[in-house]
Amino acid sequence: MEGMPRAPMVAPDMRYIASHFHDNPNKYDSSLDELEHLRTVVSHCRADVEAICISKRYFAQLSMMKKRFPMEEHDPILIPFAWTDRGFDLMNQVIYEDVNFEMCCVMLNIGVAHALVAADESRLEMDSIKNAFMHFQWASWPLQYLRDHMGASRFTLSDFESPYLTFYLNIFLAQAQECMLEKSMIDHRKPVVIARVALQTHVMYRNCEAYLKASGISDLLSSSKYSELERFCTTKSFLYSALYNYYLGQQAEDEKQSGTRLFYFSRALDLIKLAQKAVEKEKKKQQLGETVQFAFDVILLCEENARKENNFIYHERIPQEEELTKYEGVMMVKPLSFDPCDPSIAGDDLFRELLPNDVVKTISLYSEEKNKFKREILDLVAQKDSELE
């Protein structure tokens, strides 16, 4: 989404400061200017770490402002927040006089920006893999929070629909798991360990594919985008299922089990061929196609060698699938949150000197009770002193 700022926020806030807090509004000109600056940066929807930090600070400031200024729907302060819904590749402007709408849009953009930063990583070296791994997990939490806690679906944007948020939440986590698999392979972990990570990656993409077909998300996407996502999930599901079997074949090779080795390599070859068929239908297949082709070449060579060695040297029986050990995948990822109340994220509260009436009353009541308690203690001390005399 691309932000389209409309009405300035200065006038209504200044009037409310004067009427409700009985304070001089001019004292907060710099705070209001800073808030406008934050929104301007956020509305440009840049996908970099600096912009993400600014978006989080803006979200945190809005959270603190909600406690002071009634800016929700039907509240006294009416500020039109305008954003653009790009559903079905069309530009549709949406406006709500509700700060919760603004916060939902900002939260969504935080998640999307994290995902774009992660996807832009080359993942050719370890630091790049780690960055992608972290950003995909950071990307998933805003979508989960929007769906479960912010009630975003009440606003008429396709991006806020629960099936849409759930699908991309799962995709981001699957891609984070994929990064962990890449790290495991580079670290040369034991084949069975890599196999279990690959199995979980396969399961996550398979679940994404199943959810895509069953959730009704096709109503929220163009047909071309839906087909692209379906092929993407299908290809990766087959790819990582093939790698799961490939690494179990490597484990069998280490254990000198020639028949078992051939079984797994043959299974891996069948699956990588299915991945090839799926990726052939993808228009933007270059990078994913190269990945599948590389895996195919390696698996094919291993399968041919295993078959020749077993046929001419070892002559071991190829086991049935039910005879082999069953493995479970290992989940290595979870949504990673941020705390809007963390000063390192929010910065200084722009309106920290404005205390809501209930806070002022509470502080006053606390002071009265404190003084009363102090007087009682002093009276008791004086009484005991007189008794001792």
TrEMBL record:
UniProt name for this protein: BRO1 domain-containing protein
GO biological process: early endosome to late endosome transport; endocytic recycling; protein transport to vacuole involved in ubiquitin-dependent protein catabolic process via the multivesicular body sorting pathway
InterPro entries assigned to the protein according to its UniProt record, in alphabetical order: BRO1_dom (IPR004328), BRO1_sf (IPR038499)
Span of domain BRO1: 1-388
UniProt source species: Meloidogyne javanica
Coiled-coil regions listed in the entry: none
Gene3D superfamilies in the record: alix/aip1 like domains (1.25.40.280)
A Pfam family the protein falls into: BRO1
GO CC terms of this entry: endosome
